[in-house]
Amino acid sequence: MKNLVQLGFAVLLSATFMSAKAQNANAENSTLWEISGNGLTQPSYIAGTFHVMCSKDFEIKPKIMKALEKTDQFVMEINYTDPAEMTALQKMYQTDKKLSDQLTPAEAKELDKVLADYGTDLKKMDNSSSQALYALISMKALPCPQNDIKMYEIELLKNAMKSKKKVSGLEKVEEQMTSINKAYDLKAVINQLKMGKEYEILLNKMVTAFKKEDVQSLYTLFKDDKIMNAKQEKAMLTDRNKNWAEKMPEMMRKESSFFAVRGAHLMGDNGVIRLLKAKGYTVKPVLSL
């Protein structure tokens, strides 16, 4: 992989679809979980991440790094070290059909006005996909310049590569984008863009909760119905979690694995933790390591 800076920007784009539902009140406060039992000869780990934050708020706790050191394979949602996946990701943020051609004149005028709050306009974004539009939300909500942004998975990836660990992904770019398209059509994205300041306030609260490993508060914040309805939850979380939970056992049987996925995927009735437990694994929070 030649350029981690470019890679980081790709992660930023693909990570802007923030979504989740609340976990029950008895969950342990930990962003790191150990997976064992069910025939595994050595434990694997899954870490709930917060994709992007300002450097002043950024911290990877020692237990996360220790768990990564103990495993043989680093697994992200998408394998960003795969050149083919990177090419596919870049293509997904352009569209053959202009945004303005998908809207009425009145809707196009409204979008142009909304985009002014994000420092751009419809003319500049007209050849972009709705996913590229959505990426503006996260970038604007962060209270720091882009060159001061830290990306959780990229920092973990750097350490995994230094240790020459195998790097894998739980899904392909095409699969992720299919899920995103099911959840958020252009008009849904425009409605999200209109939230503006609400996202900034929400993101700040989420960062505070994440730093404390207060998963209950974090997922309660994610539960806001303005961010996700039932259809969007199914596409962005439930269906993907089930697919991942089918792939993870084989990965863990072959070699101990460290899975890094955004925290929204861990919790809830259809969260990865509960799905793995249903398969017979022991999945427990790691408070220290």
From TrEMBL:
Q: Where in the cell is it found?
A: Membrane
The GO biological-process annotations, alphabetized, read as: negative regulation of Wnt signaling pathway; proteolysis
Key word Glycoprotein present? yes
Q: Which cofactor does it need?
A: Co(2+); Mn(2+)
Please indicate if the UniProt record lists Transport as a keyword. no
First-listed, main subcellular location of the protein, grouped into a coarse class: membrane
One GO molecular function term of this record is: metal ion binding
Which residues, if any, are the signal sequence? 1-22
What InterPro entries is this protein classified in? TIKI1/2-like, TraB/PrgY/GumN_fam
Pfam families assigned: TraB_PrgY_gumN
For membrane topology, the record states: Single-pass type I membrane protein
Question: What does the entry list under GO cellular component?
Answer: membrane
Mind listing the UniProt keywords for this protein, alphabetically?
Answer: Glycoprotein, Hydrolase, Membrane, Metal-binding, Metalloprotease, Protease, Signal, Transmembrane, Transmembrane helix
Protein name per the record: TraB family protein
